[in-house]
Fold this protein.
Amino acid sequence: MAAEEPNNPPQPPSSIPQYPEMILAAIEALNDKNGSNKSSISKYIESTYGDLPAAHSTLLAHHLNKMKQGGDLVMAKNNYMKPDPNAPPRRGRGRPPKPKVPLPPGTVLSPPRPRGRPPKPRDPFAPPPPPKKASTGSGKPRGRPPKKPKVGAPSPAPATGTPRPRGRPPKILQATGDEMSDQFQEWKKFVHDSGCREGQDGFPNAI
């Protein structure tokens, strides 16, 4: 199993100064009013200090970011410069807190005011309020009372016979005059073929 690599970057050899010192020296030597970028700082350190570690670029970026967060350097348009000592302190986000006025010695602080509206002061000469009666209940059930039947109204007659089925009743087919005439002609032919005699009413007589 390989050994875990430490999170901290490797330290430079002891023969050269620490990176924060070299970075500040490079910015002072370059003396640019707009600041110096990472490339120009790196070139100055490489030309001034020959024995640099292999991870020089990583170490330089790490210390530049650390010095910027700590307030040792100010970054403007990708250029690093020293902070101006005469510049006003940078204002933080949000509204600044109000300065507290020091109280004179011996001042007793009052307890904090409770939330909500304070109760009205009572008149000491006013008569005491009458005691509230205990609720015994009226016995009236809750909700709407049921409707009473009207006096003199006839009561509905009880249903007799089989109940009417649900739905619309089926239509009864009625034969038309032409259909009845055709059926009557077929009946007469059947009577003639069977040898029965036809009566006066058109129906066959018994033989």
Residues 196 and 207 are 7 Å apart (CA to CA). The helical segments are 19-30, 38-48, 56-70, 177-194.
